[in-house]
Amino acid sequence: MSDLKVFRLGADGRDVELRSSTVALEVQLQRRVEASMEAMLGIRFLASEYPTGPWHRGRVDSLGLDENGVPVVIEFKKGNDSGVVSQAVSYLTWLKSSHHEFEALVREKLSPEAADSIDWRAPRALCIAAGFSHHDRVAVGDLGRQWPIELVRYRIFDGGLLSLQLVEPVSAAVSPAAGRRSTTPSVPAAAAEAAEPPVVGDVPECLRDLYGELDEVLTASGEVETVVLKHYIAYRRLQNVASVIFRPSASHRVILAYLRLDPDTVELEEGFTRDMRGIGHLGTGDLEVRIASAADLKKAGPLIERAVQAA
Prior knowledge:
Elements lengths: L6 E3 L5 E3 L2 E2 L4 H10 L1 H5 L1 E9 L1 H4 L2 E8 L4 E6 L7 H13 L2 H11 L2 H5 L7 E6 L4 H9 L6 E9 L3 E8 L39 H11 L6 E4 L4 E4 L3 E9 L4 E7 L13 E3 L11 E5 L2 H17 L1
Helix pairs in contact: 8-9
């Protein structure tokens, strides 16, 4: 059973719990998620029932490319299925050996630019099912950096409501905040952006303490994972909550945090927050927050909390 309870306010002013169930057919869940995959999961849909060839002998339920340019395989189960994790590992094995095929699919379905910007370092899998066993969760936790797998529990509620709950986060998430105590994974810097390219990977010495505090604020809920990507650091649940980029120049040492918030709901402040809609930038998120001091971070706290709650 799901531990999520949903209530509707009745005519008498009292809340009534909505009954939950699973889908009658697995394909019903698959088609519903595929139709709104970007809104639900931050993943651009590419293909359904994609064949993996004679060696792997299977069909990936859904293929997609997430908002960070990372390839994703998605498997659906209408109930509980202890084989879903091993199936996900098999399809990730296929994906890692099929770069050219996947890139051709992205080029056809999305664009040449999307195909050229694919981040192949950590393709991931999403398993969406009614529930998962203890052994599934242990397996996902033990697979480590090699097989990033997320477990997502779904339920259907009266009125056609669909819930998706992240049960187990991707195990390949690595927090660069560890750079305050030791070395962090080396990640190539992004291509030059204007005259001042952002710095990614090892946290710049001049920003380590400030970034460490920001990292703690972003992950305080215990539900946000940190993923070091090619051009920025992503904080996400099912979708990105924030993207972080470092600007450690001598003239202004600042951390740029791009939050998944509607700028129209924020009172913008020059030099601190900026509406990024229609402005190209690395990472995702429509609201830019410039953090150059502890005071800036304190002021950004409520905005970060809103972004986490909304994700």
